[in-house]
Design goal:
2 domains; about 15% strand; Rossmann fold; Arc Repressor Mutant, subunit A; 5 strands; 10 helices
């Protein structure tokens, strides 16, 4: 039996996926969570083989949760199930430890196939993500700059792009202001920008945050 958890801040979305997955007798819903903190708390006491994780969550983002899961619960496989297209996040999330990436409008059969593959310890790469990888390897597609960010740099970048201050981010991530400032400098260098406003513009242009 595959123990699956659903992490999404919209109850109607969680309900829809729960009903869809209930049609597969080999899948059991271990728990649901509406935010990252709730998901991490439930993982402390509930076994989960596959975590279906949204990126846009209140408080801790899916990027934050992915990093925490990789550190604390390495046996848990993470399948990103996002409203953002593959072009925005798929390669970055896979490079930072996700076992797969799917858009929420995927077909039921594809979602079930992905869950079974990920639960077996394999990576699931959708046809579109495979195309992006192939284009990058062949040189037909230059990897976008944010795909070169480490998981911590991606965390800090997205929080800055959403308007959080360095001190706020330091408090949320339990790091010093100096450390966050160092990450900010690395991010601005890698993305070739000079200010938080330019970080936000970059994120919007690449579909990494909503307007």
């Amino acid at each position: 039996m595959i123990q699956v958890a659903i992490v999404d801040d919209h109850q109607i979305v969680r309900t829809g996926f729960r009903e869809l997955l209930s049609e597969d007798a080999s899948i059991n819903i271990a728990f649901e969570a509406a935010n990252g903190d709730e998901a991490l708390e439930k993982l402390r006491t509930t076994q989960c083989g596959v975590l279906l994780l949204d990126i846009s969550l209140p408080g801790k983002s899916g990027v934050d949760v992915l990093r925490a899961v990789r550190q604390r619960y390495p046996e848990t496989n993470v399948l990103i199930l996002s409203g953002f297209p593959e072009e925005s996040y798929a390669l970055a999330m896979i490079k930072n430890g996700a076992n797969g990436y799917l858009c929420k409008d995927c077909e039921r059969e594809e979602l079930l196939r992905a869950i079974h593959m990920v639960s077996a310890g394999r990576r699931y790469v959708s046809p579109r993500t495979a195309e992006l990888l192939a284009d990058e390897m062949s040189g037909e597609r230059s990897g976008v700059l944010h795909e070169a960010l480490s998981d911590r740099e991606l965390q800090v970048f997205l929080r800055l792009a959403r308007g959080e201050s360095v001190s706020d981010i330091a408090g949320q991530l339990h790091l010093s202001v100096k450390t966050i400032s160092t990450y900010r400098s690395r991010v601005t260098d890698k993305l070739n920008v000079a200010s938080n406003a330019e970080l936000a513009t970059y994120a919007l242009r690449h579909g990494l945050i909503n307007d």
